[in-house]
Amino acid sequence: MESGGRPSLGQFILLGTSSVVTAVLYSVYRQKAQVAQELKGAKRIHLGEDLKNILSEAPGKCVPYAVIEGAVRSVKETLNSQFVENCKGVIQRLTLQEHKMVWNRTTHLWNDCSKIIHQRTNTVPFDLVPHEDSVAVAVRVLKPLDSHDLGLETVYEKFHPSVQSFTDVIGHYISGERPKGIQETEEMLKVGATLTGVGELVLDSSSVRLQPPKQGMRYYLSSQDFDGLLQRQEASVRLWKVLTLVFGFASCAALCFILRKRYLQRQERQRLRQMEKEFQEHEARLLSGAKPEDRESLKSACVVCLSSFKSCVFLECGHVCSCTECYRALPEPKRCPVCRQEIARVIPLYNS
Description:
Blueprint: H1 9-40, E1 43-44, H2 51-57, E2 62-74, E3 79-80, E4 88-104, E5 109-123, E6 126-129, E7 139-141, E8 153-161, H3 166-175, E9 177-190, E10 194-204, E11 207-211, E12 220-222, H4 226-289, H5 292-299, E13 312-315, H6 324-329, E14 345-348
Parallel strand pairs: 1-2, 7-11
Antiparallel strand pairs: 2-6, 2-10, 3-4, 4-5, 4-9, 6-7, 8-9, 10-11, 10-12, 13-14
């Protein structure tokens, strides 16, 4: 603690940082909890013959947040994989990712770094249909790329290592970047794959559409079933809650530490004032009971041994209260017997 009982700069930084981190974590936790609560409140609708009847009876022929599960079926054409034969889908994502080692000048280590240098996504219109072929109902999926959990499957992945000459290696060491290679990936949403859609379900004329919700709730197209999707979201909520509690406890601990130090400092100041008051009262009683010729010698006596004369000036407090022998006998760190402030240096006092 600094003089005056004020928290130090380091303690302020610790308390401020932990408080800011706690606030950020709590904000993320609240968002995750809200998403999980919205998922729990979503209406589960079976993809069957009575789907249109359910929507026609709903207000505005719309269910604002609904869950529906079905198989993927293309409307017209399909997308063929560029690398795998007989692999057809309705969404195709091609990615080229560069991998390299970058020299960190702070840690003096090579760190692995990756960067997407090219990505292209192709889509065609598709429906969600029941797994039973006898049921003639379909839900058209709109804006699939706006979903938060697009259930794409990796169908092809290959790493192309970079070929380097000796001069390239020397140049890379000088520049601080060492290319490792290019990773080529193809992801697809296959025809026939099971998909769980969470969004706004609308009956328009004779067709049913699944589209992003208008109320700002999250839009999902996941390869997981709804229970798995909900469990994963709840696990994320629990994780952020634990992190919030940990940093919140750290903030409370830092605050309690600062308050405790201030309280101890205040108690120490009160104790020192009381000691000084008692010393002055004791000195006044000695002076009042002493003979006139002894009063001057009592005023100049060391406050520790009361036998030798004061011969030291303590800095930075400036008190003249001790003889040289008693100063040397003070325990480390040496403090002024009057104010208990740490003694930085001592100046000898010579009486003429």
